[in-house]
Design a protein that fits this description.
Elements: H1 9-21, H2 28-39, H3 53-65, H4 78-83
Length: about 90
């Protein structure tokens, strides 16, 4: 079921970071997991997701030449380059 919730910028950033660490593209499953825990319900079962080959290619490219291309914010903005393809 879909619904809309209001998040702070800080909450959204934290959810995106957690999702990225798990190899997820979004954070819906994290919200479902948190709600289930908060409400004392069984955690929803979902198969673990692996990073897409496209993401692996961007990671390899970033690691190979991320700093040699003049990107001064590589460490600071690595999520943008790797996960969002910017």
């Amino acid at each position: 079921m879909r619904t809309t919730i209001e998040l702070t910028d800080e909450q959204r950033s934290a959810l995106l970071a957690m999702a990225g660490k798990r190899g997820l593209r979004g954070y819906s499953s994290l919200v479902q997991e948190a709600l289930a825990q908060y409400m004392g319900l069984p955690a929803p079962s979902a198969p673990p997701r692996r990073p897409s080959p496209k993401r692996k290619d961007r990671l390899a490219e970033f690691l190979q030449d991320g700093f040699s291309t003049g990107r001064k914010d590589g460490a600071e903005s690595h999520d943008d380059y790797i996960y969002r393809g910017r």
